[in-house]
Amino acid sequence: MKTSSQQLLKTLSGLAHLNINRDEFNLKNELLSLFEKQHLANHGQKNIQLNLRYLVESEIIYASHFYLLGALQNLLDNAVKYSGDTPQITVICYQKRGTFVIEIRDNGPGIPKKQQKYIFNKYYQANKDSTSKKGYGLGLNYVYNVIKAHKGKITVDSLPGKGCTFTIYLRKWKKK
């Protein structure tokens, strides 16, 4: 799974403007499926705790099934990758003033404030000093571009030693 994710990221990283096609799908079920894939991919390697708090009445979202789930998978992969042997990851979905919000919280080492403004830049790696965590610096740039193509926004809130919370805001998530 990691190899296919990396190949996908390498291929899509060169696309400055993603043309997304939206469709309706059950986001809650898809998130649970992503959780299952994380457990299978890390079977026996890490003791992963994945929690979903889906606080929106409708489980149906109008977005790009392929790209949005790819972005969410990337954020989950990062959370597992950087959260040590016992990753504790919580995904919270809720609605705020008509905007669909997805928070992904982890218990990893966090990202220093000085680095946070660069993490969505192509090829930037906040963890480049870590020899055990290899990457290309493309994942968060891909996530940023997917959310931007959805006319949304992504933010990060993090303190070193306190984990990260990535928050996605999607204004146009319902079919009109």
Characterization of the model:
With 176 residues, the chain is of the alpha+beta class. The protein has one domain (2-16, 45-170): Histidine kinase-like ATPase, C-terminal domain (Heat Shock Protein 90, 2-Layer Sandwich). The protein contains five helices and seven strands, in the order H-E-H-E-E-H-E-E-H-H-E-E. Strands 2-4-5-7-6 form a five-stranded mixed beta sheet, with helices on one face. A two-stranded antiparallel sheet has the order 1-3. The chain starts with a helix and ends in a 6-residue tail after the last strand. It catalyses: ATP + protein L-histidine = ADP + protein N-phospho-L-histidine. This is histidine kinase.
CATH homologous superfamily assignment: Histidine kinase-like ATPase, C-terminal domain
CATH fold group: Heat Shock Protein 90
How much of the sequence lies in strands comes to 15-25%
Low-confidence stretches: none
Assigned CATH architecture = 2-Layer Sandwich
Fraction of residues in helix: 25-40%
Q: Give the domain tally.
A: 1
CA-to-CA gap between the ends? Answer: 35 Å
The DSSP helix count reads 5
Radius of gyration: 15 Å
Strand line-up in the sheet with most strands: 2-4-5-7-6
What is the H-and-E element order? HEHEEHEEHHEE
Instruction: Tell me the name of the CATH class.
Output: Alpha Beta
Q: Number of DSSP strands?
A: 7
Q: Give average pLDDT, whole number.
A: 88
Pfam families: HATPase_c
EC number: 2.7.13.3
InterPro entries: HATPase_C_sf, HATPase_dom, His_kinase_dom, Sig_transdc_His_kin-like_C
Keywords: Phosphoprotein
